[in-house]
Design brief:
This protein is of the alpha+beta class and 215 residues long. It has a single domain, classed as 3-Layer(bba) Sandwich (Chalcone isomerase), CATH 3.50.70. It is 24% helix and 40% strand. The strands form two sheets. The protein has an eight-stranded antiparallel beta sheet with strand order 3-4-5-6-7-8-9-10. A two-stranded antiparallel ribbon has the order 1-2. Helix 2 runs antiparallel to helix 3.
């Protein structure tokens, strides 16, 4: 669901590049965060459907303890002109999007269960029904998708289809792809992890970066 950002050492230089992914092909902007290439645009490819996305924002997720850098997050949307750059309104503005994606490149090794539990905490903070079948299926896909090693990426693509159904596709760091169908609001619920109520000050900082965009 992405082109994974990796680094190659050439004559002592660290050169960011993009690899291949099953669901999201990202085109670089020439900008970097922590030597991770930041996209300008991307194209989704899921079960024969495709969408053109533009970068809405990017930033670093840190953990409160010792300010450890965990991952670089990139948010991409298909209607950038409708994305509201206001922290209280950004999440709701994504309701107007047909396709959105969150791409994470990890800066340290993180276990699959730790990733899942972090998502679960955020969903709880946003009053999302984590007992619903679609949310349970999403969290299970994250857990079963395996650990997130340093330098590897994962991504989540949300789609609102013409028939009213909503899909969330998760691609794990190993390239395993799982698509989950849910009721109206499913995509917004998953996006609340990064754009909703935050569980700590560092997530608030990341949200600010995703809202204001890359300068």
């Amino acid at each position: 669901m992405f082109r994974t950002a990796i680094t190659l050492g050439v004559m002592g230089l660290m050169i960011p590049t993009f690899g291949f992914s099953a669901t999201l092909t990202m085109q670089p902007s020439g900008k970097e965060i922590e030597k991770v290439a930041i996209a300008k645009t991307a194209v989704t490819s899921i079960d024969g459907r495709s969408a053109n996305l533009s970068l809405a924002g990017a930033g670093i997720r840190k953990k409160t303890l010792f300010n450890v850098k965990v991952y670089v997050a990139q948010l991409l949307v298909d209607q950038i002109d409708k994305y509201t750059r206001n922290e209280d309104q950004a999440l709701d503005s994504t309701n107007q999007m047909g396709s959105v994606a969150v791409h994470l490149t990890f800066l340290r090794n993180v276990g699959a269960e730790d990733v899942m539990n972090a998502y679960l905490d955020s969903l709880d903070a946003n009053d999302v029904d984590t007992k619903s079948e679609e949310v349970k299926a999403f969290l299970n896909a994250v857990k079963k998708g395996g650990d997130a090693p340093e330098g590897k990426s994962m991504a989540i693509v949300g789609e609102r289809l013409a028939n009213g159904s909503e899909l969330v596709t998760y691609e794990s760091p190993t390239g395993a792809v799982t698509t989950i169908q849910g009721k109206a609001g499913f995509v917004r619920s998953i996006l609340s992890i990064w754009l909703g109520e935050m569980t700590d000050s560092h997530l608030e900082d990341l949200k600010k970066d995703l809202v204001k965009g890359v300068q």
